[in-house]
Each structure stands twice: as C-alpha cells, then as structure tokens.
Design a protein that fits this description.
Pfam families: Beta-Casp, Lactamase_B, RMMBL. By secondary structure, this protein is of the alpha/beta class.
C-alpha cells in the first residue's frame, strides 16, 4: 500500500491524497481546488497528477472548496463511482460547487470576449454547472460514528471534526493479504469550545495518520475575546468614525460564526444600532443549510434554540440578493457593516466593496480568517500600502484590522488534543499536510516531543510506501 500527496502538500489548498492498495485499487481522499496561488493556480487545477478514470473510491472530508472544488472535474474526466461524505457535507457541497461552476462560466465569458478581440484561442472552464449537477448525483451520504462497508477491502468511519457543518475526520479500515490496518485523515480540525459546533471527536487507534497543520505553530486567543474585538471594530469604525466596516468572510462557517456572535451581542444589548448587510447569495444559502442540521450544533446553541428559533438572525440584519442591490451599497453614505465573500478577498462581491472603500481613512477592512499570502486579503494583512484590484491600483488608506482568534482551524493545542486519543507508539507514520512548510517543521518538532517517532512532511506529487 502507498499514498501520494497531490495537493495541500506544503501549502494549505488543493487537498488530494491518493491511496493505492497492493491489488491496484485506488482511494482518493478529497479533490480540492487550489486557491490564491497566483499565476500558477489555473495550471495546478487543470492537472491532478493522476488519471481520474483509475480512481475506484472517492471520500470527501468536508465541503470547503479547497477540499471539494475539483470533484466535478474529477467526474467530468471519468470518475463514475460514489462520493462518500456526511449528509450535511452533501448539502453544503452542492451549493458551493454550483456557485463555483457559475463563477467559472462567467469568468470564461469575459476572458473569451477579450481573447476574440485579440485573436487568442477560446478557453473552457474547469467545469460547468451541468458538470457540478452530475457530480452531486454521485454523492452518497453516510452518518457519523458508524462503520460503513464500501467493499470487501474497505470500510469508512466519519467522526465529527468540528470545523464546519458536516466536516469529518475520515477513518479507513483496509484489508490486504489477511491483515487490517487503519488510516486516518484528519480533514480540517476544528476548535474545542467552538461557539456553534461540537468539538472534534475521539477516534479508534490508527496505524497511519494524515493530519492537517494549518496553525501548527500558533495559539489562538480565547474565543470570547474575538467577540469583544468584533464589537470594538464596529464601535470604532461605524459609531466613532462614521465609516463602513468591510468583512471578507467565507460563506460557509465564518459568516455563520459572525452572525451568531452578533445575534448574541444583540440579545445582550451590546450591538450598536448600525445596519448590517450580508452581501453574498451563497452565504444566505449556506446559513439556511446550517439551520437544517442542528444535529451538528453544540449544547450551548441547542439550549439557545429553546428561546431563539434562529441564532443567525437579529433586527437590523439584511441579506443582499441581487447585483443591483450590492452596487447600491457603494453609494451608501451611512455607517454600516458589510459581510461578504470570499474570505481571502480573492473573488466575489467583497473585492468590489474593498475597491470602493479602501481609499477612505474612516473605513475598515477586517480580516477574520486565514489568507494565502499571495491573496488580496493576505497582502492587506501583511501591511501593503498599495494593492491591485481588477487591474487598478489602490492606495490603502482604510484601516486594516485582523481578528486571528476567529478561525475554524484549531491551533497546535487543539490539534494535539485531537491526537490525544492515540497511542503514539502504535502510530507507524504521521504525515503533515495542509500547512505552510515553515509552520509544519515547527509542528513536527512539537509532535516529536509528544512521542510520535516517524513524522513526514510530503511534497506535492510525492508517493510514499506504507509497508
């Protein structure tokens, strides 16, 4: 048995890990899209590093595009099997993939108009809406905490990863030559004490572990102070400076966390009387899917549901649906908060809001999650004085704020707690994926002190035998 790492290897996007059994059977864990990788992004997403027609089993850890975004391309290029995931992941992935396909089709129309004028060749999107719909038909939901037999050689178990609604750590029991071994793929590990979701669950002893390491060298601040920091930015920007607070936020997970925090602040009488807009149709759909899966909520949210039937809504909140409504926000003079996708500010309506507000000192752009260094959000986080948006240069006069504790990814203590149910002496090898290499080396040293003896940081397309 061997495993090849075709994405999220020494970087945090494009998750794809391919297990090949001795009999030739191939199991693909995730099929994610690379994001925020600069000029090489498109070429990385065009080539998997493997043949889609040779995949026998596909398993999805969760709905985020860097884990699911190339599933329609996989099926378009020939994968015909089932795609195993949790029920909530199936529902979230459907809206994310359809949105991704629509964006690609729109982008290609623009590019092809320009190419036609310049005599350049016609280009195709990675996949279209019809491809995404066909891929969704291949999804096969499996509940948490129940071993499910895929075939005579492979069983899968999903345990809650606490990262987003439906997120799972994936555990495989694989039988070869009369011997059974367990491989665990962490997916993305959430935070213990998340304001909305259950904490990551314990899991059976594994022989091999593939583990994310996004924040392997960081400790987040307590979750509660992030709520206080959010209210402080609203007060400073909207109340004192009479400006706009622009918050790039992922449609799945981060937007719902922000809305839950604001709803709680409103119930406690702490939320200033300012208008708040969620300008993302996808965020609206994702919030609705989140409401549909209360089985993923922690006890605190379940208790809140006894007195508040919608923890993601409150007076003063308005969802923006149409493009025209979104454009009207640019002409608005009154203070307000605008939450819009994407979280890295690389695409979507938030780029327009940043472009229209970045040159005003009274405004604030608030980053509330991880950003690839090359993304617009990443450049703003690093203190760029000037940025390019849609080909135009903008001087950064607005304040750029960061709330680092608002992360759906666990820090190194959360990840260590996730591993605490394992006997390090029984883990034959641990692979670190989904992280920047410098961070991974720090986390590897930390895990070595915890007793894990064999820790590898694979490079992209590297294939390693598992014995």
């Amino acid at each position: 048995m061997k495993i090849a790492f075709h994405g999220a290897a020494r970087t945090v996007t494009g998750s794809k890990h391919l297990i090949t059994l001795k009999n030739g059977k191939k199991i693909l864990l995730d099929c994610g899209m690379f994001q925020g990788m600069g000029k090489e992004t498109l070429s990385l997403n065009k080539e998997f590093g493997f043949d889609a027609t040779e995949i026998d089993i596909m398993i999805l850890s969760h709905a985020h595009i860097d884990h699911s975004g190339l599933v329609p391309r996989l099926t378009k290029l020939g994968y015909r099997g089932k795609i195993y995931c949790t029920p909530a992941s199936r529902d979230l992935t459907e809206i994310l993939l359809l949105d991704s396909a629509e964006i690609q089709e729109d982008d290609v129309k623009f590019v092809n108009k320009r190419n036609a004028r310049e005599g350049k060749p016609y280009v195709e999107p990675l996949y279209k809406v019809e491809d995404a719909k066909r891929a969704i038909d291949q999804f096969h939901p499996v509940p948490y905490n129940k071993w499910y037999k895929i075939d005579e050689d492979v069983e899968v178990l999903f345990t809650d990863a606490g990262h987003i609604i439906g997120s799972a750590s994936v555990h495989l029991r694989i039988r070869e030559n009369g011997k059974t071994q367990q491989i665990t793929f962490s997916g993305d590990i959430g935070r213990y004490g998340d304001p909305i979701l259950k904490s990551p669950e314990e899991f059976p002893q594994s022989d091999y572990i593939i583990m994310e390491s996004t924040y392997g060298s960081s400790l987040h601040a307590d979750i509660a102070p992030s709520d206080e920091a959010l209210l402080k930015f609203i007060h400073e920007t909207c109340v004192k400076k009479k400006g706009k607070l622009i918050i790039p936020a992922f449609s799945v997970g981060r937007t719902q966390e922000l809305l839950y925090a604001l709803n709680r602040a409103q119930l406690e009488g702490k939320l200033p009387a300012v208008d708040l807009f969620v300008d993302s149709p996808l965020s609206m759909e994702a919030t609705q899917v989140t409401r549909m899966h209360p089985e993923c909520f922690n006890r605190k949210v379940a208790k809140m549901l006894e007195v508040d039937d919608d923890p993601f809504s409150f007076p003063g909140l308005r969802y923006i649906k149409t493009v025209d409504e979104s454009k009207m926000l640019n002409f608005r003079k009154e203070p307000c908060v605008i939450i819009s996708a994407s979280g890295m500010a690389e695409a979507g309506r938030v780029k327009h809001h940043i472009a229209n507000n970045i040159d005003e000192w009274k405004n604030t752009i608030l980053i509330v999650g991880y950003c690839e260094p090359q993304s617009l959000g990443g450049r703003l986080m690093r203190g760029a004085k000037e940025v390019s948006i849609y080909g135009d240069r903008f001087e950064v006069k607005a304040e750029v704020g960061v709330i680092r504790s608002m992360s759906a990814h666990g820090d190194y203590e959360d990840m260590s707690q996730w591993l605490a149910c394992q006997d390090p002496k029984q883990v034959k090898k641990l692979f670190l994926v989904h992280g920047e290499y410098e961070v991974q080396t720090v986390f590897r040293d930390w895990l070595l002190k915890k007793g894990f003896a064999d820790i590898e940081i694979p490079d992209r397309h590297q294939e390693i035998g598992l014995g």
